[in-house]
From TrEMBL:
It is a single-pass membrane protein; Single-pass type I membrane protein. It is found in: Cell membrane; Endoplasmic reticulum membrane; Membrane. Its EC number is 2.7.11.1. GO terms for molecular function: ATP binding; protein serine/threonine kinase activity. PANTHER family: OS04G0122200 PROTEIN, OS06G0586400 PROTEIN. Pfam families: LRR_1, LRR_14, PK_Tyr_Ser-Thr. GO terms for cellular component: endoplasmic reticulum membrane; plasma membrane. The processed protein kinase Xa21 chain released by protein cleavage after X.oryzae pv. oryzae protein Ax21 detection translocates into the nucleus where it can bind and regulate WRKY62, a transcription factor. Confers resistance to the bacterial pathogen X.oryzae pv. oryzae (Xoo). Receptor kinase that detects X.oryzae pv. oryzae protein Ax21 to promote innate immunity. Following X.oryzae pv. oryzae protein Ax21 detection, undergoes cleavage, releasing the processed protein kinase Xa21 chain. PROSITE patterns: PROTEIN_KINASE_ATP, PROTEIN_KINASE_DOM, PROTEIN_KINASE_ST. The lineage of its organism: Eukaryota, Viridiplantae, Streptophyta, Embryophyta, Tracheophyta. This is Receptor kinase-like protein Xa21.
């Protein structure tokens, strides 16, 4: 079939060898997807003559022989040979790949690759983004030339036999997001340059032989979500800088090293951390009570250290904790009763410490399999369990206790009550006094404040050339901040920032500033715009001046991309379907995080295209939290500031209908706005477009065409390059429209949750990439 350009027969049970002449019989083939079958034999030489080949996926088969030379395939973009039985030979195939200047993905995991990695990897394409070599038997040093691959954002070299040091040139890979050298034989110190990888989201160096201290520069990796340095020979104290990486939301694993000294108090900053392991080190001192602030922590492993003192009372706040191991330390005291109230706790190990007294009852303590208490010589239980002695009932003792209880009630209680009343009064008074300031302190706690003069300089005296946006809150300028030497060590992309200046004369602007500070203090996610610093000062006339400084997004906002015709000098940008799906997914991830993964759900309340910013790689970021509200589920203390509609505005076209009926705001309101946004992205029509007949909404307009006439209403620019339009329509566009429709249903109950929405868009994204959608 000489005109065939795409063939996907993955995930079947096909066997046998590929036809030796496949490259000649399919001369126009661009995509060949044969993954997960049982093909064997070698990769036919003729395939290397299929000049147009862009994607070759042979993943998970039984291909044997040497990896051939690819130099005659200049269009090759994605090459996945992982999980076969291929050999490297003299590694000549790597230099042959330097002819494939469009290569973005190279997957070689799980083969029989042996010998040293050649330095010619440094000649691979600059556009290479994903490079996977895990699960092979590659030995020798990592070539320093790896530092040439500046486009890399995924590099997995784990489960090999690499030796020597990590080359410092690794610090050149500025785009790196996922980096793993785990499970090798690497040694020496972790290079300081690791701190240059400011986009890093996951760093895994576990199971090697690294020595020395953790470089302090790691604190500059402010996007890091997972950090695993376990099973090495690192020593020194745990640098405080680690606890300034507020993005750590996954795991922090420092176990099985030689770290010593105390556990820094700052650990309490990591309020979004899921797993903390510092077991099997030489840490000493008390367990910091600030650890109780890590309210989403599920796994805590502190065993086999030299901790002393008792279990901090603040642990009562660890409401998500599932597994806690503090065994083999020198902890003492009674076992705190509150442990029985931690309802998510499934496993508790306090063995081999010096706890004494009666083991509490109820909660986890009723399940003998879930609790390990052996090796605490003075513990006793009131119900017989293996290995622990029974508490002897002491009648006299009880009576004495009763007497002293009466005494306590008579004398101490009145004093206590008086103190409580007085302290409440003092607290209320104090709160009133400081209320105006607290929010600002919160922002400034971690980042240096800047002055009004700094901002005047950065914006070139608020020059109109720097103006990039305005709204009811005020204006946004582009600018360049000159930090003094001692200030902020953040490396900014070309040092450009976006500065949002609040117009405090407008009603609600001050409140909006505070809401935004409060929201940004509590959220960290890849798809949320990051704050750099704030300014709360007075301007040249002595009036209050408030501004927030954000990372600058060179590709502007989504509104500009969807409706360039509204711009004065709008050049015609076109978003491909693929980009639209990716943007939809980014926004869905961000909302899912805000709604479902924060300690208290956060409702954005003003989702619309102009609040979605795009970076150089067209990754989308949700911004503008000026109307956002936390929903406090546990306490009603903040009720009046959270769900009331008092000064909520939102934006016409995106406000859910129930807000008009003064119902309380909810996450389902954001889902509605998201649905409208999705429909807008697919149709290219704004919800406020006057063209809809008889006042119908965008939802109604799309629903009438769904599903048979969708072709007529999709944005025509979106599909113009796709060769396979009907299939793309069926597998990608229609499912996206379906999500858009269900999210924008009139009744909040019928709208799905953002968790489901993001999972569904992710599925569509995978389909789209398999179908080669542009
Ligand atoms: C490398 O690609 C160029 C065209 O891009 C081609 O002319 C050249 O022959 C290729 N090299 C090899 C060794 O095939
Ligand atoms: C990389 O490419 C350059 C120029 O093509 C060549 O001179 C050099 O030898 C290559 N390096 C390796 C290690 O193959
Ligand atoms: C509890 O900790 C001790 C000492 O670290 C260990 O030997 C034991 O296996 C642990 N128990 C469970 C159930 O994990």
């Amino acid at each position: 079939m000489s005109s065939l350009i795409f063939l996907a027969i993955a995930n079947n049970s096909l066997v046998g060898q590929l036809p030796f002449n496949i490259g000649y019989t399919l001369p126009n083939i661009q995509g060949l997807i044969l993954s997960t079958n049982n093909f064997s034999g070698s990769i036919p030489a003729s395939l290397l003559k299929a000049y147009h080949l862009r994607k070759l996926y042979l993943y998970n088969n039984s291909f044997t022989g040497f990896i051939p030379s690819f130099s005659s395939l200049p269009n090759l973009k994605e090459l996945d040979l992982s999980y076969n039985k291929l050999k490297a030979g003299d590694w000549g195939f790597i230099s042959s790949l330097s002819n494939c200047s469009r290569l973005t993905m190279l997957m070689l995991d799980g083969n029989n690759l042996q010998g040293n990695l050649p330095s010619s990897i440094g000649n691979l394409s600059n556009s290479l983004q994903q490079f996977f070599l895990r699960n092979n038997k590659i030995s020798g040093p990592i070539p320093p030339e790896i530092g040439n691959l500046e486009g890399l954002s995924w590099l997995y070299m784990d489960y090999n036999l690499f030796t020597g040091k990590i080359p410092p040139t690794i610090g050149n890979l500025y785009s790196m997001v996922y980096l793993s050298f785990a499970q090798n034989l690497l040694s020496g110190e972790i290079p300081d340059t690791i701190g240059n990888l400011v986009q890093l989201s996951s760093l895994k160096l576990d199971w090697n032989n690294f020595t020395g201290k953790i470089p302090g520069s790691i604190g500059r990796c402010t996007q890091l979500q997972n950090l695993n340095l376990a099973h090495n020979s690192l020593d020194g104290s745990i640098p405080r800088n680690i606890f300034k990486i507020y993005s750590l939301t996954g795991e922090l694993d420092l176990s099985h090293n030689y770290f010593s000294g105390g556990m820094p108090e700052e650990v309490g900053n990591l309020i979004n951390l899921n797993k903390l392991s510092i077991s099997n080190n030489r840490l000493s001192g008390n367990i910091p009570s600030t650890l109780g602030q890590c309210v989403v922590l599920e796994n805590l492993e502190m065993q086999s250290n030299f901790f002393v003192g008792s279990i901090p009372q603040s642990f009562v706040k660890l409401v998500s904790i599932k597994s806690m191991d503090i065994s083999r330390n020198s902890l003492h005291g009674k076992i705190s009763e509150f442990l029985a109230t931690l309802s998510s706790l499934e496993k508790l190990n306090i063995s081999f410490n010096n706890f004494y007294g009666e083991v509490p009852r109820g909660g986890i303590f009723d399940n003998a399999d879930a609790v390990s208490i052996q090796g605490n010589d003075h513990l006793c239980t009131s119900v017989p369990t293996g290995g622990v002695s029974l508490c002897s009932p002491q009648v006299d003792d009880k009576k004495q206790k009763h007497n002293s209880l009466v005494l306590v009630l008579k004398i101490v209680m009145p004093i206590v009550v008086t103190i409580i009343i007085l302290s409440c009064i003092a607290k209320i008074y104090w709160r009133k006094r400081v209320q105006g300031n607290t929010h600002l302190q919160i922002v400034n706690e971690h980042i240096k404040n800047i002055s009004y003069e700094d901002i005047v300089r950065a914006t070139n005296k608020f020059s109109s050339a720097n103006l990039i946006g305005s709204g009811s809150f005020g204006t946004v300028y582009k600018g360049t901040l000159q930090f003094k030497k001692d200030q902020v060590a953040i490396k900014l992309q070309k040092d450009q920032v976006a500065i949002k200046i609040f117009n405090l004369n407008n009603y609600g602007a001050n409140r909006s500033f505070i809401a935004e500070c409060e929201a940004l203090r509590n959220v960290r996610h890849r798809n949320l715009v990051k704050i750099i610093t704030s300014c709360s000062s007075v301007d040249s006339t002595g009036a209050d001046f408030k501004a927030l400084v954000f990372q600058y997004m060179p590709n502007g906002n989504l509104e500009m991309w969807l409706h360039p015709e509204d711009l004065e000098h709008g050049e015609r940008h076109i978003l491909t379907l693929r980009q639209r799906i990716n943007i939809g997914l980014d926004v869905a991830f961000a909302l899912d995080y805000l709604h479902n993964q924060c300690a208290s759900p956060l409702i954005h309340c003003d989702l619309k295209p102009s609040n979605i910013l795009l970076d150089l790689d067209m990754v989308a970021y949700v911004t503008d939290f000026g109307l956002s509200r936390f929903v406090f589920t546990a306490s009603n203390a903040y009720k009046d500031s959270s769900t009331s509609l008092a000064c909520l505005k939102g934006s016409i076209g995106y406000i859910p209908p129930e807000y008009g009926m003064s119902e309380e705001i909810s996450t389902k309101g954001d889902v509605y706005s998201f649905g409208v946004l999705l429909l807008q992205m697919i149709t290219g029509r704004s919800p406020t477009d006057g063209k809809f007949s008889d006042g119908a909404s965008l939802h109604e307009f799309v629903r009438r065409a769904f599903p048979d006439n969708i072709c007529e209403i999709v944005d025509p620019t979106m599909l113009q390059h796709d060769s396979n339009a009907p299939e793309v329509m069926k597998n990608c566009v229609i499912p996206m429209v379906k999500i858009g429709l269900s999210c924008s249903m009139t009744s909040p109950k019928e709208r799905p949750d953002m968790g489901h929405v993001s999972a569904e868009i992710l599925r569509i994204k995978h389909l789209a990439s398999h179908m080669d959608v542009r």
